[in-house]
Amino acid sequence: MGKRVALVLAGCGVFDGSEIHEASAALVHLSRGGAEVKIFAPNIEQRDVVNHLKGSPAEEKRNVLVESARLARGNIQDLAELKATEFDAVIFPGGFGVAKNLCSWAVDGKNCTVNEHVNSTLQAFRSAKKPIGLCCISPVLAAKVFPGCEVTVGQDKNVDGRFPDAETASAIAELGCKHICKNVNESHVDKANKIVTTCAFMCKAPLHEIFDGIGTMVQEVLKLA
What we know:
Helices cover about 35% and strands about 15% of the residues.
């Protein structure tokens, strides 16, 4: 029987929701791994809406659950309904929606607050000793909720211009967590906390390398489940 995995989305689109390629990559690797997946998102208003063609703010309001339903092909549930007892693992793709909608990192950095249902979901899986997978910017959720944990968002220096957000690693360290430097095609496993992270689009890399890196994260999560 395949592992039961919950996937938590933050909207639809890199600049104000979940990064679509990351969400899709996670779903492909979970499918290949024989996992049974259910998708969730919080039923809240987005912090903002971005015109992805122009890269500028749009004067409209959108709902995170409704927008996430685009990625889930309509098969999605309110995050408030997620019960850790019904799953073997949980995975959070990245995208600015994580830093805007699932928490306030985009505005407040290490002083951010985490959405109550995101927080309770993370706490429930950790308490049950079930693995948590995070990629791109989403490892900051673990860093904020679980002081002392180990995560990666890639490198802590902007190596060859490939890691323009390398300062995130410093902010994670300031939260009392350990940042582990990894390449885009690798993931890090915090065995003590069963947290698996990979940098994905925090690195400027070809799409197939990001896809492969997310694959290593998914594989490690399924091993731990």
